[in-house]
Structures are given as structure tokens and as C-alpha cells.
Amino acid sequence: MMTFSPELEQKFAKMLTSYPEGKKRSAVVPMLIYAQDEVGSITPELIDEVARRCEVTALQVDEVVGYYSMLHRKPMGKYHVQVCTNISCLLVGGMELYEHACKKLGIGHKQVTADGQISLEEVECMGACSWAPAVEINYDFHHHVTPEKLDQLIDGLRKAQ
Amino acid sequence: MPKKLYNDPSPLETRILSKRFGLDNSETLATYLANDGFKAFRKAREMKPEEIIEEVKTSALRGRGGAGFPTGLKWSFVPRSSPKPKYIVINADESEPGTCKDRLLMEYDPHQMIEGILIAGLALDAHKGYLYIRGEYRYLIDHMDRAIAEAYAQGYLGKNILGTGFDFDLYTHSGAGAYECGEETALLDSLEGKRGIPRMKPPFPAVAGAWASPTLLNNVETFSAIPAIIRDGGAAFAALGTPKNGGTRLLCVSGHVNKPGVYEVPLGYPMLKFIEEIAGGIPGGKKLKAVIPGGSSCPILKANECDIPMDYDSLAKIGSMLGSGGMVVMDETTDMVKVALRIMRFYAHESCGWCIPCREGTTWLRKILQRFDDGGGRSEDVGLLGELSKNMLGRTFCALGDAAAMPTISIVEKFAEDFEKRLARDRQMVAV
Amino acid sequence: MAELVNLTINGQAIQAEKGALLIEVARQNGIEIPAFCYYEGLTLQAACRMCLVEVEKTPKLQVGCTLPVADGMVVHTESEIVRKARKGTLEFLLTNHPLDCPVCDKGGECELQDMVFRYGAGESRFAERKHHVDEQQWSPVVYFDAPRCILCYRCVRVCNEGMGVGALGVANRGVISEIVPNRHDYLECDECGACIDICPVGALTSGSYRYQTRPWEMTHVGTICTHCGDGCRTTLGVRDDKIVRGNNRDHSGINGEFLCIKGRYAFDFVEHPERLQSPMLRNAQGEFEPISWSKAFATIAGQFEIVKDRGGKFGIIGSNHTTNEENYFLQKFARQGLGTKNIDHHRTGDLATFFDALSGKNGALATTADLYTAKAVLVVGADLAQQHPFLSYQARANFRHHAAHIYTVTSGPVREDNQAVASVRVAKGGELGGVESLREKLKVEGDLVIVFGDSIQGDGVRKLVAFGDSLGIPVKYVCLVDYSNSRGAFDMSLIPRDGGMSWQQMLAAKDLDVLWVVGANPLKNATLASSNAFVVVQDLFMTETAKRANLVLPAASAYEKNGTVTNVCGEVQKLKQAVKVMGTKTDLEIMGSIAKEMNLNLGIWLPDKVFAEIRRTVHGYDVPLPVVDTGGAAPTVPLNGRVPALPGAIQSAGDTLFTSGSMSRYSKILNAVIESPGGLYGSKGPEVSAQSPTASGQTPGGTVQS
Fold first, then answer.
1. Does A1 fall in a domain?
2. Are the beta carbons of B350 and C52 separated by less than 8 Å?
3. pLDDT tens for residues C376-397?
4. Where are the alpha helices (DSSP H) in B192-328?
């Protein structure tokens, strides 16, 4: 049995009553993504815990994990840097920005720096097309990101530790 | 504090849905109420449900998520008299490449959307709504939670709203990164806690949707348009646009333009005028090469096809779509091979994998395009790309297969010379 | 009368029920519409897109497996556009499918091969790199090769819907979608192998069968599984006189679709090295010595004659898994040949009281088919999924396809609870009270089948039948008995009528002179009081009882002989000999030879001849020969008036999915499964959720599963 922070426990308690009677399964995906923020990744233990709370089998939770891009079985860094290279960002230098990020951090797609602090992912359209190039760090959006601005952001993350 | 908008507005806009963007504290209930907020709800409460639906039909509002289905007609499919509970599901999955408008509607004017949802509830005898927001929009989920809490606190959600005797509960529900979950029935499966796999139709969601109950599913912008329609009348809304394409819509323009951004214009606004005068034209005086009119799923337009009014029917007539309103502008320096590749990488990554043509076809096409882009292209590849795309078109379980096939077919047919140029260049390199 | 519509397929005028699925209507009229994911009896998927056909006046190709036929519909299934579409879909499918045919078990019976031969796409334009993942082993009997998988989802559905277990799921997204087992990298399930047989390609393969042969190198022998009382057809694949696999792909038996792990895999006890292969006599030193058959027969006949002449006491214990012919012959030998009434077998259900309570009633015995068609099924004191998996399957299929009402009254949770309208938990022995509590619900059912286990005995049976009578609706019954021919053993009168001794009494009798045990193991948990008794044992292995014998005779198993067996519902079916094990003889031949040695005239000991006599003399067994001879199942109705009570206790064998008396101990496969990580759940059952974990499942009626 796992427990989460008081805020998260409260959120989960409310979540489980939001859906119709007997439909706790609906909470599986939101529960996984919120819990991932605290646990770090979708571990087998977390899968069992979510299955228990949502009254489904572990298989039914396991099936779902690999389908959703934002759920990771291995932990990402404390700061997960997501760089979009889809069409709108591509046209204004998104690919070059991503390659710059790879060089700056010394890691590739879905990899984590050795100190576990920063991870990188080439992502699909995140809904910032008109303000491209776009980068999301954890859940924070950054617009009009140039390589210089990205350097500043990453340096800022490193200072923050 | 006025929220700094992500781009400056344009004086050429017709701001109906976005009229409160930029106002002080535009996201609060107080600002909303001070600016025509909840007038429509009170009016709708006095109308018969059939009258509400009729008003929406008159407005000629069409789904703003991408498919452009007439909204009033969709509402009329939900059996109001069914003994099962009816649900309203709001599609805030906004993942179509090129699209970033629902984000703004939630961020700057959440209560407008809430009011639209409530009016739908009145029309359909629905009392529960689920706001399905893509996982990447976490800050907006938190934002909507606050707006919803504010509405509850002041009696605009929950039991006996504004003393009208009407109850409605609204919940947010997070996605976790899947484009296919923007598809209506796949969204419902995701809402039910499963993988986002689309469903067979019939039964349609209106009859058997969320948890096998009658469900209305519409896009954020569609619901956001409802208060204006009820408040000022469907006819007024319809008159802003063109026949059968009523009202205004938020268009997102991105790519090679001087003023990329989200702008609200009436349906039927001329595309070239939009690009030149609202989006500021193409930087560096370059020539226009291609336009994706409404999200990457649309067949791409050549520059000489862009002199058209932007509404659903006009774009359909020339073989493309108004879609999600995500317009992407490409200038003469654009390598269409890279565009085709990136688009197919997206669909291959996002294909849910349920059916053979899309699952295998998108990956095969991606591999061909990747090899082509890497310099290993063969002359037969261009024909092959078109043929394989046509083998997907109309054969797949849901529209994602078409969404992958259509742009690819249009690119290889309209921009064959980009592919030929690459082949020539590759041959040259080999020869050296 | 259902409404009929007229439509045209390929120019052929066809009449069909309105709303029937196009693919089914076509198939019924001899027109094949290919499909991978469509499978009769499972929910519709519309995933493979192979069944796309042309329907006039519609712009897109239509999905044949979900399209209901309508009046005036004009369909083309072989037009140019349809052929091209099929070829295109196959070409897509083959892009990642590895060219494993030379080493893949499925070669020769592979649906993908068949489709490619028929519809083209044998040469691919795919010039890229295929996506590869390594093969996985999910259990001793289940191997999964992901690259071969075409994601038709049949395995997921048959496990979830058909078996009610739900051990397989679909994970990931897009082209890396994969079938996954419920314990991440291994399976905790019934190990029934249904997923392997339903797989159209070689993605799921059998651990016991792999790499051994090609399908066309085997002879296929359809016989009846020897492990439990359900009477499932298992088609044994035999190569070079060795059984290499069992399955039911031809759907030829009463079990149609279904087989459990025992029917599919547990044939390997046949070739266990410890099979007895020579008659053995205990010598003066007390050790077993191999002897010839003729010496064995002479010795036995000699002993029997001595005891018979001096009026000594015989005790004959027959078998639950020998054939009707053998049982009939044995009791005839006992009563006519030896003049004794002391004949019994391990009785696992109170058939005596059951038949007595039902005497004179018509239509009171349920067949296995009735469990699929009845409006309601009540399960009392039995865990069908463990002990009668086919009956469990029928009830569940009835629920899935006909929305039948299932009721369970048991002392612990059972799998049928998931489909039940009402489940009543009672203490063991309190079942009748639980049944009574369902009276109001049951009496408004259209009809009812009551299935009960050994906790209902003696007077309990009468009370249960009285309850059924009092409901005022048609009621049929199944009295559960274990082992493949328990019902047959009773019907052939291997029972201590007219004052004979029960087997417990035989073992307790200090003055017992002869104990003749055929295919039974009474001394497993009991002792023989008479220390001087001459014990003759006919069996497959050196069981506990054989160890006590004076003379042991190596017998043939059910897979090595012909004859008939009667299943738990009274349906009689023919066995067909698949192999012969050196050194053994059938029990019938052994008994016949002893009779000959004793100059007894008990009739010709050939199965067909004995069966002819059974048909003439055993009440209820005058079944039509064409039905039985062609591999069918004929219901027997031995209700013949009052049946006196029998002495001796009745007790179920308590077998599970992975055990069946002494034979299962010698099945390497069953033991491997029991010892595997997923196999220990045995009695408690795998974790099953009441919610159906199908991948976007919809019932054929069109409602969405939630």
C-alpha cells in the first residue's frame, strides 16, 4: 500500500467521487499522471496501488501505461525539458533548437543527465504553435525559445538546485 | 492585472468569443459578469429545450474541433427523454499540430465556456460535465479547477444554480499525452480509464457514449460560442459568417509570417488577406509556397490555391478542410520533403495501433520518408508514397488514417518537384 | 418469425434476417469474406479491415463484419477495388511480419499464409528495416512472438470473454502495440491454451508442441479427453505413434470452441517412463517379477476359480475412466462370472438418489447444450471453472450471447459470480438454505438448469429436486460427477446393488479373499484390512494400490483404445484409439482373456460388440448408432424407476484445473505449470475483474461495454 502527499490524497479522494457509481476505473489515467509527479515514474508498486484504488486489475492499469506518452516507466529528470519539433515549430527552427538542446545537455531523446536533474524529450505539438519555437519544462510553457534563450533556461535550472 | 496576451490583437479581428481577452482579471467571474456574463444562461433557462437547440441550429455553428459538424444538429441527436443520465464532455485535448486556440479560451475566458456548457445542460437535461484536458495543459487544468471552484462558491455551478432549480456538476479530467484521444470516441474510452482506442459507430456517442449513456461531445470553442448565440440570437451569429458557415472562429496562424498568433475572424474571411493583413505577411518579402489551412490533417494548398474564403464549405470544395483552424504558412525556402516527413512522424507516433492500415501504413510511410530525407531515396518512392497513402485512405477504423494520408497525398502530388530535386541532389552526391 | 430482407451478393439473390451481419450472411451462402479479427462468438472489433467490401450507393468500402444487411443492398465481394484493398491490407500487415514460415509452428495451418496465397501480396514493396522484439515465454505452455502478431485481438477476447479470465491485454500504442500477460512477463491463468489455438498466425505457440512436426505429418485422431467428466472432444495430433499435441481446432465435439489445459496438454502421461509395460507377479521374496501375459491370466484365473468354488468373498472395484464397454463387461464378469454382488467404484456424486428422485420424470436431465440455451442456470456447491471447465464455459457463453441469468450458491467465490445475477455465500452444507433464498427470483425465469456438486447428497438431493418441482417452471438437472466416465460407471451398474459391499466395506472386510481393482486407486488414502486377500490390479502406473497387489497388469489409457464414455450430462461419445503403448493391453482385452481362461461365456470382448449389447440391455442407452459412430454425442436417459439407496460414502475427487487423479501426476506439462510462477493460483483462481478489460469491446448487439 502506498500513500501520497496530503494534497494528492485529497485530490484522489475527490477524484474517485467525480465519476458515476461503480466507474472508478475512470480515475486510472489522471491518478497515474498525478502520482508520477510525486513517485517519479510509473513503478510496478504504483500500478498495483492505482489498480487497488480504482478497483481494477493490475493488467488493466499496466495496459494503459505504454499508451500515453507522458507516462514513463523510468524516471525522467527533476526537470523534464520537452522541445517541440512538429510542423509549426519546425518551420521556425524547432529541429535546430532540439539538436542544440541535445548538445548543451549531452543527452538524447528521453535520456537523463548523469546527476538525474535534467531530462530531454523531442515532443509532438504542445499547443503553442503561434508562439513557436515552444519548449515545456515539466508543466511550464516557454514561447519564442531561441537557442540562447534555451541556454538561459537550462542554466537557470542548474542554478536552482 | 491585465494578463499579457501571447500575441498582440489585430484591429481587423471581429472579437466575439475573444472579446474579454486582455481585460483585467479576465478569468474571474467578476469580470465575466461585468461583461455580459450569464445573461445567456438566464435567458436559456426561460426557453424550452427545443428552442435552445433551434437557436443553435439557426446560428449555423459548426464543430470547432476539426470535423465541422453542425452543432445544433448534433445536440438534437441526444435523446433528452432517455431515462439514463446524460453527460456533457468537453474536448479540450487540442493536439492537432498548428492549433493553439482552446488554450486561450480556457486561460482568458473560462466562464464563457462554463456558461456554454450549462446551456447545453439545459437543452439536453444533462447535469454532469467532464472537461477532458490534455495532460500537457496541466497549468490550465489547475486554472480550470480554480475557475470551477469559483463558480461553485458563488452559485454558478452545483445545486440550484442562481436559484433556477437547475443542477450541474463540472469536473476536470486529465489526459496523459495522446493525440488520438482528441477523437470523440477514443476520448470517451480514455475518460473511462482505458487506452484511447476509438469505437465502432453506431452506436453514436449521442446514444451510447460515456459509460454507455447518451453523451454530447463538443470542442472548447464550440461551447464558448454558445453564450453569444443565445444572448444575441442565432441569426445574428449566423449573419457574421457565410451561409451554412455561421459566426466567427479563432484562427491560429503560425510558420513563416511576421505576426503569428491567434485571431478571431468571421467565417469566410479571405485567406490571402488574412495572411497579409492580419498575420503581417511573409518575413523578408519571401514568396508564399504552401499553406496548411486547418491543422496538419488537411490536404496542403499551393500558393495559387489560397485565394479563397475561409469557411468549411469553400475549403471542402477545393479538396481541403477548415479543420481545427490551425493555419501553417510556408514560404519558398521550405523543403516539402521535410514537411512530409515531420507530419508522417507525428501520425506514426500517435497512431493508436488498433487497425492494420493505419498502424502499419503510417510507420511504413515514415520509414520511406526518413530514408528519403536521409539521402537514400529512390525514384519509385514518390509513387509509392502516394499509393500507400491511398491504401490507407477511407480504409481505417477512424479518421487518423485519413489525416495521415491526405496531407501526404497532397504533398507528393503538388510538390513532386521537391522530391525530384532531392533525388537529383542525392544522385549528384553519390556520383562525387 | 424474424423479418427477412432481400439482398444481392456477387449477383446472387439472397434472403436473410434483417439486421444480420453481412459477413455471416455471406458465409451462410457459401461466399467467403476474409477476416482475421472477426470471430464468431466473440465481440466485434472491425480492426483488421480485411473484410472491406463494396456496397453500391455508398462512397467508401464497407466493413463486412459489422454491417447489418438491409433490403435492396447490393454487395460485391470480389470486385477489382475490393481485391486491391485486400491485397493492400495484407501488404501492410506483412511489413513487420517476419518471414518465419520455415521455422514457425503455424506453417501449413496459418490463416495469414492462406490469405496471402488467395489474395496476393506475397511479394512486398517494403524495403525498410522491420521492427523486432525478442520472443517471450509466458508460461511452460505459452510462447509469444510479438513480431508475428497481427493484433487481431482474438486471444485477448477469448481469454476475457470466453474463459472469463482476462489474463491478456493490449499495451503500448501504434506499431509497437503488443499483447501482454497479466503478470507483466508471465501469465497467471488457466493455461488452457485457447489463446494459442485461436491465434490465426504463429504469434502464440505451444511450449509442448513447438518445433516437433508439421501439421501435415500428423494423423489427427478425434477422441474424448480422459481427464474430467465434461466429455470434450480433443483432436490428438499423432506423429510416429506419439501424441504431439491436442486441440479442438475443428470444433467437432460438443465443446465446439473450448478445451482446458488438461484436454490440450495433459496427454503426455501416456508416454511417461513409469508406465507399466509388463504384467508383474509378487514372488516369494515379496518383490515384483515380470511375467508373461499367459502366465498372468492363468494365475488370476486359477485364483479366482479357487475362491469361487469355495464360496469365498470377492471385491471388485471398477474405474471412473475406463470405457462403458469395460465397465459393463466387468460387472457382468463379477455378477455372472464370479457370482458376487460386491462391485463398486469411487462414486463422486449421488447419482443413485438423483435418479431415484427423478424417476418417471421426462426431460429432467440437462445436456451440455442445455447449459448454453437455458434462460437461467443455478450452480450449487460447485466451482465449475476448476472442476468442470466446459460447463463453466457454456454457462458463461450463455450469459454473453443470450444474457442468461446465472445464479451461484457456493461456499466461496467462484468465477461465475462475475456473470451472476445473484451470488449467495453459504457455509459448506448450507447450500439448500441458499437455494431457497433465491426462490422468488427463480420462479419467474423461463426455464432453469440446476447444477449441483457432491455437497448435495442423499436427502439433500430429494429436497433440491422438490425445490425445482415447486418453482412451477421447467427445470433440468446436472448431478456433477468427476472423471471421464463416472456417469458411465454408474449407468453400467458398477455399484453394490442388492446388498453388495461398497468399496469402503470391501477394504474393511477382514475376510476378503480377492480384491480386483481395475483403473482405480482406493488404497491411496485407505488401508486393506484383509492381509490374505489376493489383489489384482489393472492400471497405467504403479499406484499405491498397485504397490499392495499380488499381480499387476499394465493397462492401456483412454487414448490407446476404442470404446464409449458417458459424460457428466449423460451424453455418450466414442473414443478413438490414437496410439499404442508397447506392453499394455486394454482393460477389456485383459478381462476377456481372464474370462476365456476361466471358460466363462461372457460374450465377445470387442468394443463394438459389447456396445451393441449395452444398447440392447442398459436402459436409456438405446442411442442412435449413426450419431455415435460419426463422432456425435447422444444423450442417454437411464431414468428407469426407483433406485434403491447404496451403501458407502460419496466424495468428489476435488480436482482442480491442473489435477485429475493419478494420471495428472504423470503429466510433465501439468506439473511444469503447477510449479511455474503463474501456476500456483490453482484453487483460488486468477485475479479477475468484474469489469471486462477488452480493447474497445462492443457486444454484437451494439452496446458499448463499460
1. no
2. no
3. 999 999 999 999 999 999 999 9
4. 220-232, 234-240, 271-273, 312-317
Angle between the N-to-C axes of helices B220-232 and B110-124, in degrees from 0 to 180, rounded to the nearest 10 = 80
A132 shares a domain with A87: yes
- Cβ(C442)–Cβ(C464) below 8 Å: no
Residues in chain C with CB shorter than 8 Å from the CB of A58 are: 182, 687
> B356 and C49: CB-CB below 8 Å?
yes
Locate C602 and state its grid cell.
461372457
List of domains in chain B = 29-240 (3.40.50.11540), 248-331 (3.10.20.600), 336-431 (1.20.1440.230)
Count of domains forming chain A: 2
Cα maximum dimension of chain A? 52
What letter would DSSP give residue C551? E
Sorting pLDDT into bands at 50, 70 and 90, what band is C647?
Answer: confident
Q: Which of C595, C688, C638, C612 is nearest to C358 (CA)?
A: C638
Sheet holding C534-539, edge to edge: C288-290, C280-282, C551-554, C534-539, C514-518, C314-317, C343-344
A130:B262 CB<8 A: yes
CA quadruple B323, B327, B333, B335: dihedral sign: negative
Contacts of C179 in chain A (CB under 8 A): none
CATH number at residue A130: 3.40.30.10
Distance between CA atoms of residues B132 and B183, nearest Å:
12
**Mean pLDDT along residues A142-151:** 97
Task: In whole angstroms, give the CA distance from residue A145 to residue A153.
Answer: 9
User: Among C169, C176, C687, whose Cβ lies nearest the Cβ of A63?
Assistant: C169
Taking the C-alpha atoms of residue A77 and residue A66, their distance in angstroms, rounded to an integer, is 19
**pLDDT of C676 over the 50 cut:** yes
Residues C522, C501 contacting (CB under 8 angstroms)? no
At C706 the pLDDT is: 25
Q: CA C74, C79, C83: angle at the middle one, nearest 5? A: 130
* Best mutation target, B195, B324, B410, to test chain A (most A CBs within 10 A): B195
Residue given cell 451569429 in the structure block: B237
Neighbours of A, requiring at least 3 CB pairs below 8 Å, are B, C
Q: C406 forms bridges with which residues in the sheet?
A: C377, C420
C-alpha cell at A20: 458515476
| ipTM score | 0.97
Which domain, by its residues, includes A147?
79-160
Report the distance separating Cα A90 and Cα A73, nearest Å: 29
Show which of A15, A32, A65 is a domain's final residue: A65
Exposure pattern of C187-207 as b/e (b: 16+ CB <10 Å)?
Answer: bbbbbbbbbbbbbbbbbbbbb
- Residue B178 scores a pLDDT above 50: yes
Cβ of residue B366 closer than 8 Å to a chain C Cβ = no
Per-residue pLDDT tens digits for B363-398 = 999 999 999 999 999 999 999 999 999 999 999 999
Does some domain include residue A141? yes
Contact A57 C171 (CB under 8 A): no
The number of C-alpha atoms within 13 Å of C22 and in the hemisphere containing its C-beta is 29
Distance from CA of A65 to the nearest CA of B (A): 9
* Chains A–B, number of C-beta pairs less than 8 Å apart: 149
Q: Tell me: the pLDDT tens digits for C503-533?
A: 999 999 999 999 999 999 999 999 999 999 9
Kindly state whether residues A153 and A85 are assigned to the same domain.
yes
Interchain pair A131, B6: CB under 8 A: yes
- Given pLDDT bands bounded at 50, 70 and 90, which one contains residue C197? very high
Region C204-209: what's the mean pLDDT? 93
Q: What is the pLDDT of residue C649?
A: 84
Percent residues over pLDDT 70 in chain B: 99
pLDDT in tens, C569-617: 999 999 999 999 999 999 999 999 999 999 999 999 999 999 999 999 9
